[in-house]
Amino acid sequence: MSTTTEVLASAENSMKKAIADLDKELQTVRTGRANPALLDRIEVEYYGTPTPLKSLANISTPDGRSLLIQPYDKGSLKDIEQGIHKSGLGLTPNSDGTVLRISIPVLTEERRKDLTKVVKKYAEDHRVAIRNIRRHGADELKKLKSAQISEDEIKRQEDALQKLTDKYVREIDKMCQEKEAEVMEV
To answer: pLDDT by residue (tens digit) across 120-152?
Structure first.
């Protein structure tokens, strides 16, 4: 049987993982700047197998407005180009036969607003995840009510769990605001 401190530690660890996951998702949201993380979700059909793009090529940013993709296998260049077209990111790669270059166009005001909605959705999904972790932790604490652990101790731990929840929800809000500001800057 776990103790109240183990329940809290487990809940905090899960909340930290949710924050890390949100950070990773926010990196894939396109801003006006080039960022190799934009291409993290792209899978390329490589020898009949869906393969992550970052496994097939080195992705770099030679300047703030473009991405340079250097395939490890030159034969995969066409497959990578098709994968980028199919990704739905609205990016057009230019091939010179050995590397792909992607110019990141300036975002329109309408597209910026759409992207802030995406950011808000990611943030809300992760707030829900944090609250679910809190609920699970509270359920675990209730299971511990017994002769060894007093009702007052359980209440103190539930309060500590709520404080943890509030802390991580504030962190999500802060991350969301920062990303929205980044998306809206010209």
So the answer is: 999 999 999 999 999 999 888 888 776 577 888
Q: Which residues of 76-94 are buried (b: 16+ CB within 10 A; e: fewer)?
A: bbebbbebbeebebebebe
Three-state SS at 74: helix
DSSP state of 97: S
Strands 93-95 and 100-103: antiparallel
Sign of CA dihedral 112, 183, 85, 87: negative
Query: pLDDT digits over 71-109, tens only?
Result: 888 888 888 888 888 877 777 888 888 888 888 877 788
b or e along 145-181 (b: 16 or more beta carbons within 10 Å of the residue's beta carbon)?
A: eeeeeeeeebeebbebbeebbeebbebbeebbeebbe
Q: What is the pTM of this model?
A: 0.71
Name the residue among 111, 56, 115 with its Cα closest to residue 83: 56
Element spanning 148, H or E: none
Between 109-143 and 4-27, two packed helices, what is the crossing angle to 10 degrees?
Answer: 170
- Amino acid residing at 134: R
**Helical packing angle, 151-184 and 109-143, nearest 10°:** 170
Tell me which H or E stretch contains 76.
Answer: none
CA distance 171 to 155: 24
